[in-house]
Structure formats: structure tokens, C-alpha cells
Design a protein that fits this description.
heterodimer; A: Rossmann fold; 2 domains; 6-stranded mixed sheet; 12 helices; B: Alpha-Beta Plaits; two-stranded antiparallel sheet; 1 helix
């Protein structure tokens, strides 16, 4: 039946990590993810987990320690935000190319500068092509549930890729909400034991990891990573089905909210989906056929499935909580529209950049987006596809 | 997964991340052609003190059953000269690979 609790996003994730009881956690504190290793270290001190907690001197070292541990044959986890992730950047690519299924909690925060500790998605967008599986979470419940599913996905023999679970800094990480937790034994059984086929501490099989990969080989190894990412779609679906059997909570690549007969819709990720659902409800009461799609699985990107879900709309807005500063549109916008173009689905689509540096995004802001979409749906004309909401111009 | 991977191996048969699932394969990689200078072993001066072969990074100084060193294995000797440096008896002389 589950355990009824009320926890912040960080508390929920630390609770899940305690239940998973990984072999190694290596982390360095950075706002707003600091509480995750902080709470977890109390579990280590209290003996409720038998994890080796490595209090490293930097995030570069945190990811390096996770890589070493995972290569040795251990299950390793970490947490970070923004500039912590930037400092890991080199090792982020090493982790994925060495095919080490490390699991990381990324509490999304704006990458400096100018210095800002609040929520946007610029940290996550900076590693979107690094070969990590990326799952986004609307609230504490989804951050916890994605975490419980993470190892089964990352460690699957057809995948073997690191995985990060994103949640919005402060908005989710520090807000206390109701949550339904899973019993310890059930989590233990669901996650299972980590049994890598090849690992450095296996004295029966001496191996070398990370050798020089010259022109003759790197192309094929990158192709293998790309294949693994394609395989991950199937595995993410299978694991979600098992998770639903255990908890009754259903997880798809993305959530479709009132999309059956929708004429206009917004695509977004993380906590903004909660605000958007409220706006959709009020628009529906007024007879506006509005819908919303919230992306959970950002990497691998569900391009075909999204094109199918969005293809019959009259107008679409894709919301990016990070400005790609490329003069053409946000990262999520580009992924969505290229998927739709490839699938020959032509819907008038606009890019909205919003919420940068923790700027509050209210229902009024989202209403403004839908109101523009209603106009586009009527006329079919877009005066400017590269738009902002909540910005003082 | 193949362990003998070369330029003709398709991606589907390569190990992930370039992992090597067996030991001792440095033998297959002959580093001798990196050499620009080479060591010459002067056996008359050698006292078999045993200082040279432990410092060789390529294990290119063979040691026989009696524990005595023999002439260099030039398949692997890169000509780094560490052995010549440690020899107290000048029994190893570095000369240009060119022949002089």
C-alpha cells in the first residue's frame, strides 16, 4: 500500500538512496542539492546503510570517484547542481563512454554567471549530448519514483549508461509535499543486486578499462553508445511497467494532459507542468481545447512518439527553462520541432524561454502563452517564433 | 565479444568502451620502432649486478634461468636509456639508431 509521508524533493531522494543502499556515494555540497549528501551522510553515520561515503574535494573528484567505484564493480551514486555539474563535465563524458551505470541526482539550478543559485535548466541542457539518460520530475514523488527505477534502467545489459534524475532546485528540492513511499523490502527487491559482467576487482578476469581509442575505434564506440541510448527506450518502458505493477503509479516517456481533443498545447518539463495543468483546467472550463505534454524522458528523446502526440494540434508552444543563446530557439524546442519535421507533422510551433535564474512562473504567465496560441490557432500566423514569458523587455 | 579487435571488426563485435578483457596483451604491441637511440650491451663490462632489468619500462631486458641478463629485446626497447643511466659499470652505451 505504500507509506504516506510528507518530504521535500531532496529528502525524498535521500530516502530513496537509503533504501537502495549503494556501495559508494561520492559527492561535494552545492546549493540546492547539498541536502542530499547531507541527509545521506547521516544514514551512513547511523549505520542504516553500509555505503562507503567519499567526502571529496570537488565535483570533478566526485564523478571520478564514482567512475572508479563503478569500474571496480560497485554501485555508485552522487548528487549535484549547476556549476558542480559544470566542474564534472570532463568526467561526465568519461562515465558514459566507459559505459558505467552511475546514478546522479541533478537538482536543477542556473549555471553562473552572473552568479545565481536558483532554478532553471541550463545545467541539464549543458550535458544533453553527453550520453547520459536524463529523466525529469514534476515533483518530489516523481523524483523519488524515477530514482527507484534508475538502476534497473542504467544497469540493464542492453543499456549500460549513466542516468541522471532532474528535479527543480528549491521549487521541488526544498518544498515539502505529500508523497507515497515504497516499503524498504519492496525497493530492495525491485532494484536488485548489481552484478556487472566485467569489473576491475574480479581476480578471475584481469581487464583494462579506458585505453587509448584511436581513429580505428572511436567511431564504433560512439555508435555503440548511440545504440545503447536507443535500447534504453525499450528498457525504460519495461521498468516503468514493472514499477506500475508494484505501486500503481504509471510512468510513460511523457505525460499527456487533456490531449485527446486538444487544439493548442504546451510542452514543458519538471515543476512548471503543475502550474500548466492548473491553467489547462481553467481554460477547459472556459471551453478552450487546451492540453499539455510534460516530458519525463528527455534522453533518449521520444521524437517519434511526441510527433504522434502533437501532430494534430493547431498551435504548439515549447517551453524552455534555459536559453540556448543561439538566436534560433530553446533546446527542447529544437528537439521537438525536428522530431515533428522528420515525421512530416507540420504544426505552427513557437519557442518560449521562461523562468531563467529562478524567475517565478505563475499561472498568469502560462495563460499568456495559451492566449498567444489561441491567436496562432485562429490565424495560422506566427509573428515571432522566438519568444519570452515573464521577461521585462 | 571478440578479443582480437582490429580495423575490420564491426561495431557489434567490439567490446564496450574499448575494454580489454584479457591480460598480457602489451606483448602484441611492439614499441621497438619508436626508438631513435639504442642501447648497446657490452657483456665484458657487465657484472650481472641486476640493477638494469627492474627499471626497464618495457621488460625488454631478458633474464635467464640463472638470473643473468642477456642482450636487449629490440622488439620492445624504446631506447629510453634508463638502463644505461643506472648501470654502475658503463656496460650499456647509448648510440644513434642510425648505426654510428
Amino acid at each position: 500500500m505504500g507509506i504516506r509521508e510528507r518530504l521535500s524533493g531532496n529528502e525524498a531522494v535521500a530516502y530513496g538512496m537509503r533504501q537502495i543502499n549503494p556501495d559508494v556515494v561520492a559527492a561535494f555540497p552545492i546549493t540546492p542539492s547539498t541536502e542530499i549528501p547531507q541527509y545521506f551522510s547521516t544514514f551512513v553515520s547511523n549505520g542504516t546503510v553500509d555505503t562507503e561515503f567519499v567526502a571529496v574535494e570537488s565535483e570533478h573528484s566526485a564523478m571520478s570517484a564514482c567512475i572508479g567505484a563503478e569500474a571496480a564493480g560497485a554501485r555508485a551514486m552522487t548528487a549535484t547542481s549547476a556549476n558542480g555539474l559544470s566542474y564534472m563535465w570532463e568526467m561526465i563524458y568519461i562515465a558514459s563512454s566507459l559505459r558505467l551505470p552511475i546514478v546522479m541526482n541533478l537538482v536543477n539550478r542556473a549555471v553562473s554567471g552572473p552568479l545565481n543559485i536558483h532554478n532553471d535548466h541550463s545545467d541539464a541542457m549543458g550535458v544533453r549530448d553527453s550520453g547520459w539518460i536524463m529523466l525529469f520530475s514534476e515533483n518530489n514523488q516523481e523524483a523519488y519514483d524515477n530514482l527507484i527505477m534508475a538502476h534497473r534502467i542504467a544497469e540493464h545489459k542492453d543499456v549500460l549508461l549513466p542516468l541522471m534524475i532532474c528535479q527543480d532546485g528549491f521549487i521541488t528540492s526544498h518544498s515539502i509535499e505529500n508523497i507515497e513511499l515504497i516499503e524498504d523490502e519492496k525497493v530492495k527487491e525491485f532494484v536488485g543486486k548489481y552484478t556487472p559482467e566485467h569489473y576491475l576487482l574480479n581476480d578471475k578476469e584481469p581487464i583494462a578499462i579506458g585505453p587509448l581509442d584511436v581513429q580505428t575505434y572511436l567511431f564504433e564506440h560512439k555508435y555503440q553508445q548511440a545504440e545503447a541510448m536507443r535500447n534504453a527506450k525499450r528498457v525504460i518502458k519495461e521498468v516503468a511497467e514493472d514499477f506500475e505493477k508494484m505501486t500503481g503509479r504509471k510512468y510513460s516517456f511523457f505525460e499527456e494532459y487533456k490531449m485527446e481533443d486538444a487544439e493548442i498545447a504546451v510542452v514543458c518539463m519538471n515543476s512548471t507542468a503543475g502550474t500548466t495543468k492548473t491553467v489547462v483546467d481553467s481554460l477547459r472550463e472556459k471551453g478552450v481545447k487546451a492540453g499539455m505534454v510534460k516530458i519525463r524522458m528527455f534522453r533518449p528523446f521520444p521524437a517519434e512518439e511526441l510527433a504522434e502526440a502533437l501532430g494534430n494540434l493547431k498551435a504548439l508552444a515549447v517551453m524552455d527553462k534555459s536559453d540556448s543563446l543561439n538566436g534560433a530557439g530553446g533546446a527542447l524546442f529544437e528537439d521537438v520541432v525536428s522530431g515533428m519535421y522528420t515525421a512530416k507533422k507540420q504544426v505552427p510551433t513557437v519557442s518560449y524561454v521562461y523562468g531563467i535564474g529562478g524567475r517565478d512562473t505563475t499561472s498568469k504567465d502560462i495563460e499568456e502563452v495559451y492566449s498567444y496560441l489561441q491567436e496562432v490557432a485562429k490565424t495560422g500566423n506566427i509573428d515571432n517564433p522566438y519568444r519570452y514569458v515573464g521577461l521585462r523587455k | 565479444m571478440s578479443t582480437n579487435i582490429d580495423k575490420n571488426t564491426p561495431a557489434s563485435e567490439m567490446t564496450i568502451g574499448g575494454n580489454i578483457y584479457k591480460s598480457g596483451n602489451a606483448l602484441e604491441f611492439k614499441t621497438g620502432d619508436w626508438r631513435s637511440v639504442k642501447p648497446v650491451y657490452i657483456s665484458e663490462k657487465c657484472k650481472q649486478c641486476g640493477l638494469c632489468f627492474p627499471v626497464c619500462p618495457e621488460d625488454a631486458i631478458p633474464v635467464n634461468k640463472e638470473g643473468n641478463r642477456e642482450d636487449f629485446n629490440f622488439d620492445y626497447c624504446k631506447g629510453c636509456g634508463v638502463c644505461a643511466k643506472v648501470c654502475p659499470f658503463n656496460a650499456i652505451e647509448m648510440v644513434d639508431e642510425g648505426g654510428n
